Every structure is written in structure tokens, then in C-alpha cells.
Amino acid sequence: MSVATPAWLSLDDARERALAATPVLTGTETVLLAEALNRITACAIQAPVNVPPWDNSAMDGYALRAEDADLNTCIPVSMTVFAGDSQIQELARGTAARIMTGAPLPAGADTVVMQENVQRNGDDIVITEPPRQFANIRRKGNDITHGDTVISAGTRLNAAHLMLLASQGLDTVTVYRPLRVGLMVTGDELQTPGTPLQPGHIYESNRTGLKALLAPLAVSVTDYGIVPDDKAALINVMRRACGEVDMLISSGGVSVGDADYVKEVLESLGDVNFWKVAVKPGKPFAFGMMDNTCFCGVPGNPVSAYVTTQLLVRPVIERYQGLAAPTQPLALSATLTTAVQRRAGRTEFQRAVMHPTQGGWQVTPLPRQSSGVMSSVTQANCYLVVPAEVSTLDAGSPATVLPFDTRLTPEGVL
């Protein structure tokens, strides 16, 4: 059954419709921190301990009472405290404790004087710069207080999250189970890399690229391989996927060619929510449901498959995984170095190169923008976004760019 929709949906409308129709995982599992990178937290995590667990020194120096820190007065050093010491006597009045970074503050002390502001004479010290009370002390619970929510539900765990959890003494975390994603490509002309290329064939590359795009999302991938342009073969694979995966991503067969059967098969097995999006590259994008399996049909042209996976498939996966809010690409403003002329009607993501300038960025679109030219992606470091209603962008005008990365190379290019 097909749902009546306008001929083309805008990119924003397509994304919103897809997200609204996407379910959210309910199954959870508890995994070791070492296995939790990029997984999604299934519940909020409260701090079981204070960080730091006790007042401690922020640097190497001398702990004392601020009231005893008179300039040019000899203060005897009565003890030494190392990080890890557990049996520490109370600091006697009028004395100081030699203390190391991270060491517990002895009872009675309320200040640490950094060693650069002290002269040591045998067993005595002379303070050369007056300290402030509580200076250079990390107070108990200053970073995290017992019971605080340290990580919210629906958070994708990164390296910093894992370090924070480890600092709480935790070695496991409860996350949503992995999303099961199936990949298939269609086309009689496609051939697996690593085999001699037959006449009339091309090497299939989309599964390799899509798997790489999905890798940071920590999904479990089932590869259904290359499916011939045969309706019965498509039905068999798509029915099988309904019982095995949460989401099926298909590449190819969603356009209007005589051998493009994917949309027809999807209609027979479930619902087509929408088909065709006003985006370039990537217009023939299909979204629907087969029983409880979400279906995303990306175009067969490599650049179109790559771009629509980033723009439409990734947000669907993030919603399905239980991420609290789908991520948004970083958008910057850059000055065009050359004019852009094109036919308006679709939001276009031109492959481009951006360079830093004094106080800003410049961007130059690459000359070849065909959806079959994958080298345009490898040569680029950003997308130049041309709004749907715009047909002309003048050289020197501002434009929106989406960087591929946020790190600068030695050459100054993202």
C-alpha cells in the first residue's frame, strides 16, 4: 500500500517523516566499558561516588593553615603526604606538610602553597608569596557529587564518557542492544571487487562505503550481497530480512528504469511512506516499513548513495537506536571563490574544497559534480549547500558549507 505524497518531498520534510515513522529499540544489555564505545545508554547514570572522593592537593607544594602562612616566617615541616597515603595524622598548628599532587589534604590544612612560592631550608620553609585560603585544593565532590546524573539516557558513549564512568569505579554500563542493519545492492551489472571484471559489468562499491559510514554507529550489519534485477529474488531477500534485521538498507533499483523493482516489491510487502526527495544528488530515495523492519532505499549511483546515507539514513538509525536527539552536521559560512550556476528546485550538496583565510573560510566547488563520480568526494573536504530555491550564487558571496571533518591538516585544509 502506498501513501499519497507530493511528487518530491523537501529534505527537511523527508527527514521529519522518516523520524516520525521510526520506532525506538527497547531491548537492553549490560556490557563492559571496553565494549561500550559508541553504544547508546538505555538509562540515566547516577554517580555512586564523589570525585574527588576527598579534599586533595592540586599540585606539588606545602599544605598548611592559611592563618599560619606569614611571609618571611620559618614554618617547620612536620610530615610528608604522598598520593595514595591513607593513614594521615592531623596537621599540627604552626606547621606545614610537604604534599604531592593528588595526595589527600591532612585534617587541619586549608591551603596548599605551590613549591615555587616557598624556600626550603632544611626542615623549615619560608613562604615568599602569600597564599589565598583554599588555594590549590581540589575539594571533595568538586567535579562530581554522589547522586548526580553524570550521563543522560540516550547518550552515545564516547571516550570521555567512558573515562568518566571508570572514574566512578564502574566497569559496566547498560545500553540498548545493537541495531541490526541489513545491506543489499541490486543490479545485474554489479560485480564483487577482487574478481576479473566481465564485459558490461562494473565493480560494486556501495556496500563497502555504506558499511564504513555505519561503523561509528555501532550497528550489527548483515550483508545480503548483490541481488539480481529479478522481482522474485528481491522478494525472497526482502522477506528474509524482515525476520532477521531491524532495518534494511538497499542500494539501487529505486529509480524509474524497467528493471527497478525495489519500490514495487516494498509496496507488496509493506508500506511506502515516501519516494523521491528534492535533494541532489539522491532524488530517488525510498522509505517505508515491512512489518517491523524499517526500509531505506538509497540510489545506486555511488555519490548519491553516500550522500543520502549521511543525510537521511543516519538520522533514522540514530532515532531507532534511542539517541536522545539525532546529531546535526556542523555548518559554517564560507566565501565562494567562483560563481555557481544551476537549475533550482532541489537542495544540492556540491562537493567542494574549503580553505582557511584570515578571519574566515573560502570555498571552491569541484568541477565534476556527477552522482557517479566518487572521486569528487575523495577530493573534497566539505559539501557546499545550495538551497533548493537558489539558481545562482555569485563569486564573493557567502555560502553554507558542511565540513567532512573538524581537524586541520598541515596544509590548513579540513
Descriptive keywords:
disordered N terminus; 6-stranded mixed sheet; Molybdenum Cofactor Biosythetic Enzyme, Chain A; Molybdopterin molybdenumtransferase; MoeA_C_domain_IV; disordered C terminus; Molybdopterin biosynthesis moeA protein, domain 3; Molybdopterin biosynthesis moea protein, domain 2
Unreliable runs: 1-6, 410-414
Described by the principal axes of the CA atoms, the overall outline is: elongated
DSSP helix fraction: 10-25%
Strand-pairing-aware structural class? alpha/beta
The strand line-up of the biggest sheet is 7-4-6-5-9-8
What count of domains describes the coordinates? 4
Mean pLDDT across the residues is: 92
**Second CATH tier, the architecture of the largest domain:** 3-Layer(aba) Sandwich
Number of DSSP strand runs: 28
> How many strands, what sense, and barrel or not for the largest sheet?
6 strands, mixed
CATH class wording of the largest domain:
Alpha Beta
CATH topology of the largest domain: Molybdenum Cofactor Biosythetic Enzyme, Chain A
Report the CATH superfamily of the largest domain.
Answer: MoaB/Mog-like domain
Distance between the termini: 45 Å
- Rg, Å, rounded: 30 Å
Estimate what percentage of residues fall within beta strands: 25-35%
Provide an overview of this structure:
The strands form 8 sheets. The protein has a 6-stranded mixed sheet, with no helix packed on it. The protein has a 6-stranded mixed sheet with strand order 16-13-17-21-20-18, sandwiched between helices. The protein has a 5-stranded mixed barrel with strand order 22-25-24-26-28. The longest helix is centred in the last third of the chain and has 20 residues, at 302-321. The protein has 414 residues and is an alpha/beta fold. It folds into 4 domains: 11-25 and 178-321, Molybdenum Cofactor Biosythetic Enzyme, Chain A (3-Layer(aba) Sandwich); 29-51 and 143-176, Molybdopterin biosynthesis moea protein, domain 2 (Alpha-Beta Complex), CATH 3.90.105.10; 56-138, Molybdopterin biosynthesis moeA protein, domain 3 (Beta Complex); 332-403, Beta-clip, CATH 2.40.340.10. Mean pLDDT is 92; it is low at 1-6 and 410-414. It is built from 7 helices and 28 strands. The chain has helices at 11-21, 159-167, 206-214, 231-242, 262-269, 302-321, 375-378; strands spanning 28-32, 45-46, 56-57, 61-64, 74-81, 96-99, 111-114, 118-121, 124-127, 137-138, 149-151, 172-176, 180-186, 190-191, 202-203, 220-227, 247-251, 271-275, 279-280, 286-290, 293-298, 332-336, 340-341, 347-357, 360-365, 382-386, 392-393, 398-403.
